[in-house]
UniProtKB/TrEMBL annotation:
Taxonomy, superkingdom: Eukaryota
Keywords (A to Z) from UniProt: Membrane, Transmembrane, Transmembrane helix
Stated name of the protein: Putative secreted peptide
Transmembrane segments: 6-23, 35-55
Amino acid sequence: MRIFHILRFFLLVITVVVLIRGLTLHRWGWHGWRVFGSGYGGLMSLINLSSLSLLPPRGLLANVLRAFGS
C-alpha cells in the first residue's frame, strides 16, 4: 500500500511541474523554459526516478530536487 502512496505523490509532482513549465514556456518562450529548469532532461530524470520506488522517499525527494537543479 505504501508504494501506491509514493506513486500517487509522484504523479501529483509530475502534474504540477508540467503545469508550471507549461505556463513558463507560454509566458517567456523557449528562453524562459531553459532558465526555469533543465528542460526535458529534468522531466525524464524525474520519471526515471519515480519508477525506482525501492529507494527511500527522502532519497527520492532529494534526487528529484537535484534533477531539477533546485
